[in-house]
Amino acid sequence: MDMTTVGDPGLLDTLQHEVALFARRAEQTRLGGVGQVRNSMDRAAYLLLNRLDQEGPMGVKALAASMGIDSSTVTRQVAPLVDTGLVKRTSHPEDGRAVVLQLSPRGLSRLAEVRSSRRRLMAELTHDWAPAEREAFCSLLTRFNHALSARQTSPGGPVAETGPGTEPATGTGRAS
């Protein structure tokens, strides 16, 4: 079945346009939250820190697998986080040769700061929305993100990108 003919073409055109605008505006502001520059954080950094916070210390391969991206991409994206002291590299407790990545206290503090700022931004942007509208938007956006993720990882589907602009699947059900 040709999916481009399913549904209202005008509605699908509007949807793709609004998604494109959202992606541009989100990247322009980096969804920095209230306070903009001080509280902005690179998307890749935010998602990596968030994943380490949720799942705990792990190796590069495990982190890459949990995010649906390539190990070399994780290595490249983690390097500046280590350099700035947001992430620590430590020896694996059972295999001293293996490296484990974990949030540093500074990384945890910075992540909390950015989350709080983003939370305030979401509250500001949706202040006139009913709670049910916020819930519906979260549900639909989560569903949309899951569909994108499934399309990237399905056999015969497009190969997931692993470059600097990659948006890893978070699996949290929350928009980032």
Polypeptide structure, described:
With 176 residues, this protein is mainly alpha-helical. Helix content is 56%, strand content 6%. The protein has 6 helices and 2 strands. It has helices spanning 9-29, 43-55, 60-67, 71-83, 105-125, 131-153, and strands at residues 87-91, 99-103. Strands 1-2 form a two-stranded antiparallel ribbon. A hairpin with a 7-residue loop joins strand 1 (87-91) and strand 2 (99-103). Helix 2 packs across helix 5. Residues 158-176 have low confidence and may be disordered.
Overall average pLDDT: 81
**Fraction in beta strands:** 5-15%
Strand order of the largest sheet: 1-2
**Major sheet characteristics:** 2 strands, antiparallel
Based on DSSP secondary structure assignment, what is the total number of beta strands?
Answer: 2
Order of helices and strands: HHHHEEHH
Helix content: 55-70%
Find the structural class using helix and strand composition: mainly alpha
Radius of gyration: 18 Å
How far apart, in Å, are the first and last alpha carbons?
33 Å
Uncertain segments are 158-176
Break the fold down into its secondary structure elements and pairings:
Elements: H1 9-29, H2 43-55, H3 60-67, H4 71-83, E1 87-91, E2 99-103, H5 105-125, H6 131-153
Antiparallel strand pairs: 1-2
Quick recap:
The protein is mostly helical and about 180 residues long. About 55% of the residues lie in helices and about 5% in strands. Strand 1 and strand 2 form a beta hairpin.
What are the key terms here?
single chain, 176 residues, mainly alpha, two-stranded antiparallel sheet, 56% helix
